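From the shared-data thread, chain only:
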Amino acid sequence: MMMNAEALLEVVSYTEHKAEIQHIRREVFITEQGIPESLEWDDFETSSWHVLAYTNGKPVATGRLQPDGKITRIAVLKSARKQGLATRILQSLLSLAEQHAIKSLYLNAQTSAVGLYEKHGFTRHGEVFDEGGIDHVRMQRL
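Structure, as tokens:
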């Protein structure tokens, strides 16, 4: 476990950091959570802003912001959890949205993560729905 190591966050290009981003998301979403690989990769990869978190020089967490204001794919490797990295990734994505004048943000939150998003001004909209075999709820921040 990588305790007390200060994580470095960086906004990165998907094209240049594809291997690191895919490794983290494959581990978390496909291997751990059983999401079908066909649902993980989409047409927004290259047009989105991606954030990578590094601990001891190794990529351990990621997330992305789509140009339409959708925050997606926040993932933290098991070995780096419980250190506030999901919160730091989210804060970084919110800063990116502000820098790019994206006023309305939305996401599909796994129900287990609703509290994280509520702490950052997101509110639930609509009913719980299934996405990739996991319960999600739509959340917005205006």
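The longest strand covers residues 123-131.
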